[in-house]
């Protein structure tokens, strides 16, 4: 990885394995292998970083590869062995700021996991109810997307519903047809401004009709009513299921054959919000995946975050005071005092001056004794 001829690789924290390999082939394809899974990306140029993504919708970036010196050889392979943080931080040699950062990282990951769980459970619960409702258009519609692997970082409202809120399934889908026929589970392509009806014939067949302004016309083919003894009949799709021309309703028929006759489809009347009320009731419903209501879970999450943040600030303050005390203690023992050193310097200067005067006096005494008191 330190060779300037090899690519620069940034790996995502989404990867859970400790060992990866990145290879390049003759088809201008860079592949990331993680265990038994391989993810690839085509190299179009050597200027821009290459994103290698997983198969989710929308895709998540697993690695970013930057080529340094043009396209590598077809045999180029980069082996990346990553550090196991959980083992590393337990090492007695890991202390100080690095260990503090690792522990802080664990707290952040825990909070992200809890927030992701809340987002996932919220989206799942609302989507399950919204699928049982219908508005003025195709149904069921998911309120939150993507359909799977929803996290706090990627949760969003269905773009179709944002563009046309009338599609939101606020009314109960089961009220679209007469209960004696069964229960509606899906509609697609039906025009809410057009009248539709389901006709049950004397020979127990079901046919979807629509009003064209002057007469009733058939939509799709007639379907047989399931055998009465079938306790779990399969859904029946009435209407046109041709790709690009869909205009149908799917129902789970009742076990008892309905009386022959016409059963009109009832588009939601103004003010019908029975399904929306069911979503509102989730506020006080205990969610199995959370062990509490959404409100309680979120309040506990925020409270825990606040307590931990306050505790971290308090510990930081206490540790700062302790470090300051230890620093002062160390300085008092091994540190240098300018005033004290200046006093010592003046003391030594005065001592030097005294010794110099002593030497001068001795020199004068010897001069007198030798030169002036000698016997001639």
Task: Describe the protein in words.
This protein has 376 residues and is of the alpha+beta class. Among the domains are: 8-82, no CATH class; 178-258, no CATH class; 336-376. It contains 6 helices and 18 strands. It has helices spanning 85-88, 96-130, 159-163, 274-280, 294-334, 338-372; strands spanning 8-11, 19-24, 29-34, 37-42, 50-53, 61-66, 77-81, 133-134, 144-145, 156-157, 171-172, 182-188, 196-200, 205-211, 216-224, 236-240, 247-253, 261-264. The strands form 6 sheets. A 4-stranded antiparallel sheet has the order 4-3-2-7, with no helix packed on it. Helix 2 (96-130) runs antiparallel to helix 4 and helix 2 runs antiparallel to helix 5 (294-334). The longest helix is centred in the C-terminal third of the chain and has 41 residues, at 294-334. Mean pLDDT is 82; it is low at 1-5.
């Amino acid at each position: 990885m330190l060779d300037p001829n090899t690519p620069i690789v940034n790996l995502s924290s989404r990867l859970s394995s400790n060992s990866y390999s990145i290879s390049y082939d003759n088809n201008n394809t860079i592949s990331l292998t993680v265990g038994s899974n391989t993810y690839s990306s085509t190299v179009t140029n050597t200027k821009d970083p290459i994103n290698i993504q997983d198969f989710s919708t929308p895709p998540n970036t697993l690695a970013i590869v930057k080529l340094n010196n043009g396209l590598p050889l077809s045999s180029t392979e980069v082996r990346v062995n990553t550090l196991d943080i959980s083992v590393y931080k337990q090492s007695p040699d890991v202390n100080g700021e690095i260990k503090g950062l690792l522990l802080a990282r664990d707290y952040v990951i825990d909070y992200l996991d809890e927030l992701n769980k809340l987002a996932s459970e919220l989206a799942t619960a609302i989507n399950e109810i919204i699928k049982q409702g219908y508005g003025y258009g195709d149904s069921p519609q998911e309120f939150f997307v993507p359909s799977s692997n929803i996290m706090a970082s990627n949760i969003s409202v269905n773009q179709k519903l944002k563009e046309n809120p009338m599609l939101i399934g606020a009314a109960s889908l089961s009220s679209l047809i007469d209960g004696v026929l069964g229960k509606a589970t899906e509609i697609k392509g039906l025009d809410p401004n057009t009248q539709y009806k389901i006709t049950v014939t004397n020979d127990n067949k079901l046919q979807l009709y629509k009003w064209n302004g002057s007469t009733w016309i058939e939509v799709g083919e007639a379907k047989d009513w399931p055998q009465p003894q079938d306790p779990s009949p399969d859904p029946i799709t009435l209407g046109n299921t041709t790709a690009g021309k869909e205009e149908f309703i799917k129902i789970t028929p009742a076990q008892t054959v309905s009386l022959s006759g016409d059963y009109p489809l009832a588009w939601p009347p103004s003010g019908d919000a029975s399904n929306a009320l069911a979503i509102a009731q989730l506020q006080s419903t205990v969610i199995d995946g959370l062990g509490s209501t959404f409100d309680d879970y979120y309040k506990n999450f925020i409270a825990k975050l606040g307590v931990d943040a306050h505790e971290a600030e308090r510990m930081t303050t206490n540790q700062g005071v302790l470090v300051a005390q230890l620093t002062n203690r160390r300085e008092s023992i091994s540190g240098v005092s300018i005033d004290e050193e200046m006093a010592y310097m003046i003391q030594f200067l005065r001592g030097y001056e005294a010794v110099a005067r002593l030497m001068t006096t001795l020199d004068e005494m010897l001069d007198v004794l030798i030169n002036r008191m000698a016997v001639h």
